[in-house]
Amino acid sequence: QSALTQPASVSGSPGQSITISCTGTSSDVGSSNLVSWYQQHPGKAPKLMIYEGSKWPSGVSNRFSGSKSGNTASLTISGLQTEDEADYYCCSNAPSNTFVFGTGTKVTVL
Amino acid sequence: EVQLVESGGGLVKPGGSLRLSCAASGFTFSDVWMSWVRQPPGKGLQWIGRIKTKFVGGTPDYAAPVKGRFTISRDDSKNTLYLQMNSLKTEDTAVYYCATDFGESSFGSWGQGIRVTVSS
Asked: Which of A76, A81, B49, B95 pairs as cysteine with B113 (C-beta 3.0–4.6 A)?
């Protein structure tokens, strides 16, 4: 099972919106409404930001939103803030009751 | 407050074994499916496997790279998750996280991670 493909880096200025893509195949992202997204600051554990495609866990800002079209899921961060600077990973369920993560995207706030 | 604390990491030679533990508190451990995720140095997250609750059979699922070498188990009486790693390879070097399953297909709470280094 190959990792889902994400852009290596995305950047934006404070207040702007950015979108991170996550491309898989018809066997994972394309057949799943269960894509999740994680934020990871350096040296820290990942934090769940979006689950089941577009839902927010308690305590997560609604500036983060998730969507999907075909084999590609997307995470949009609106009103970019300095604390949003981190690595972001998508994750999808995959065949045989497994999961696959994305390659990861480094978000830089200019 | 949910707390997950991993232990048991360290340096091990290729071909060796190691057992990681994840002590859970702040929630009803026996009701929650649990997963292990790892992160090689400077690289992305990799799902290793997960174990269901005893209520639905307590069976584990594994990622292909570790199937047959790693074993996930749980002791609900001790609120502890385990990862037995055998036939370790240099590419198993990583920070290992335990995590609670959340919803149908995500990982809600994570431990702080424990480092495992496989090197001669």
From this structure: B95
